[in-house]
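One chain shown below:
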Amino acid sequence: MAAKVDLGKMTEKQLMALKQGVENELKTSRTRTIAAATQELQDAARKIARKHGLTVSEVLGRKRNSRKAPLSAKYRNPNDPGQTWSGRGRQPAWFKLAMDEGKSAESLEI
């Protein structure tokens, strides 16, 4: 076991360093625990699949692609038709400039 530390005798800087060290070690410990549990789960899945003459992917099915399909363009830059924007995320500079010039979003729609 680690030696006892008298927290009352530590400076604020020392306490903050100790706190950061503890937080880092907790994160590392959690990561190791998750990795060990994942490996254990994968080993068990392989063992069960082999028992039935199957592969893990046959038992669990294929992984689904969690990415969504890209959105189609909703707005087009009138000065450069190659520049488009779906209307989601950060506004492109050309869109902001058009708004500042007094154009409406509807006038830029495709």
Summary: Residues 75-108 form one domain. The longest strand covers residues 75-76. The longest helix spans residues 12-51.
